Amino acid sequence: MKKLAMIYEGKAKKVYKTEDESKFIVYFKDDATAFNGFKKGSVAEKGIVNNQMSAILFAVLAKKGVKNHFIELINEREMLVKAVNILPIEVIVRNIAAGLLSKRLGIEEGTVLNTTVLEFSYKNDELGDPLINEDHIRILNLAKDKQVEIIKSYAFQINSILKEYFLKRQIKLVDFKLEFGVCQGEVILADEISPDTCRLWDADTDRKMDKDRFRRDLGRVEDAYKEVLSRVMK
Ligand code: UDP
Q1: pLDDT at residue 61 above 90?
Q2: Is the pTM of this model over 0.90?
Q3: Which among 35, 162, 177, 199 is the best mutation to test ligand 1's pocket, defined by most ligand atoms within 8 Å of the CB?
Q4: Ligand 1 atom nearest to 119, measured from its CA
């Protein structure tokens, strides 16, 4: 499939049109940003890991009935996806306290949560992606109530599938972020599922194997990403 005009460039990905208007090509970059773009850098071969890991997990989820945008891998850094309109909502699912949840609520990082926590934030760089609730989604017209219901039910289903998948590979799924898009009137999972968008801890040692190594300057970022991919491929 021929790559045509680039229609979007984000912090970690570029999206291109193709000859088929119902399909896009996503290119995964090595660029890394954190703290709303305040910290910038790059992680060697991150794009390769994120592309391949997302492809594997999207395929796993599709098999279990979670509709998503993934069609096929094109090469190390590119995948073919269904063209969607991304809803401007970040959906965060948490199993263990970390990051902003710990900061906001004063819960020690690593505390196992007694219920799965679902959060929404408004995808808006200028506002710093603020936390929002379903009323805010309604007043901002970000999605219809029915779409929010579908997103919520997918989010919990994805969490239980991925939690089990990672745990079999000695990884704790601490939290993660999802984005959904609309394709021919239907809400489907889109974006990526990678160490950039998930907190992943080694199940034995709680060693961080995700973007927190970059955010917090913990070192050996590339190694951690590659280790996650090799476990996910098993
Ligand atoms: N996350 C993401 N993109 C964002 C914000 C968060 O992928 O713009 C992911 C993040 O990697 C983590 C989860 O969502 O796995 C929860 O992040 P949190 O709200 O704790 O914010 P952070 O501490 O990452 O800023």
Answers
A1: yes
A2: yes
A3: 177
A4: 19
